[in-house]
Amino acid sequence: MTEHDTHSRWSPWLGQVPPPHGSRVAEQIPIAVRLAMLQADYDSCREILDLNVRDLAAVVGVHPMQMSYVELIASVRRILEDQRNRILELEADRPGSR
To answer: Euclidean distance between the first and final Cα of the chain, in Å?
Structure first.
């Protein structure tokens, strides 16, 4: 038995259609399936965004729907900047720092 005989007799797809491949694979997926995949991705991103909004609202100390996402981010940035300034003040007033 030669190597050619071995390869021509055995195939992982013997009697089956091989899986699609190449740049046009997405076109072979039915539109309903592609829409379901997009909806699942969107729902996942939306859930992550909602979780981030709740976490930022908890940091700022407001209800989640009280401020927009951008306002929450700006508030957290202001809190961090205030904390940095306070740390610098305390380090400057520390005895022995002069």
So the answer is: 89
Whole-angstrom distance, CA of residue 88 vs CA of residue 18: 66
Q: Tokens for 82?
A: 């205030």
pLDDT at 98 over 60: no
Are 67 and 75 contacting, i.e. CB atoms less than 8 angstroms apart?
yes
Whether residue 4 is predicted with pLDDT greater than 80 in this model: the reply is no
**Paired tokens of 77:** 């940035």
Closest-CA residue to 56 (of 43, 41, 70, 44)? 70
Instruction: Check pLDDT > 90 for residue 5.
Output: no
CB atoms within 10 A of CB 41: 10
Residue from 18, 72, 75, 37 nearest 45 by CA: 37
pTM, 2 dp: 0.56
Compare 13 and 39 and report the one with higher pLDDT: 39
Q: 57: which 2 tokens? A: 């609202």
The answer to whether residues 41 and 60 touch, using CB atoms and an 8 Å cutoff, is no
